[in-house]
Amino acid sequence: MATVPLHPTGDRSSPVPPPGTHRFFNAAFSLPGRILVSWPLAGGLVAGGFLVAATTLSPQMTLSGVPQMTTLLFLVGAGAGLAHGALLGYLCHDPARTRVQVLRTMMCASVWVIPGLLLAWVATMWISLTTSMLVGSTPTILGMVWLGVSWLFGAAVLVWAALTGFQGIMAALRRWPGVRFSAAVTSIAFAVLLTLFLANPPEIWFTELRVTSVGAVFLAFGASVWITMPVVIVLYRLAQRLVARRAS
Q: Is the residue at 149 inside a domain?
């Protein structure tokens, strides 16, 4: 009869998990893991790649300054995506799993974030040069190939992040009633910001880039999802606790 190896302490209730790297693959394919990996990549691609490509370069903006600005925006977008992906990944976890199990799964999935960000950064650099390659100079065949591959990679990551995010939001709505309220407020905030940004396209802070209509959509979506939704969720939870304390 097969036996299960035990801890050195002899605790029969805590079998030692088999060694190997399969747990990292399983964690990456779980819903919290997919959100944790895809959202930083999508955030960096949107902020550093698609947003820059969708902007109008001012006459004072030189081509030499684009890589530095792209990298800065990529890091900001990736950091915001990682923070919000971790939050959504935790909110949408299976209720049957304990908090420790969920956090352990997300830590295993985070191993794939670094190599994914490296690939996303390379694609972001090419995407950000779209305007200069198509308008400012005569593109080479190899450059156009890399540009096309980068756009396809970026689009695939965005679709992946959108699908996993939708699944995570639906799972969170079933488990956390407060997320439903925050989603409604976030939708209203997105509509208001989009109207304001389309009427008066804002200039990105600390840059000489002013967004176009496409950039306004990305910026309004990012501001509403990355800023409004977490704030509303936190305030809603605090209000619930305050009401519960007063009721008791």
A: yes
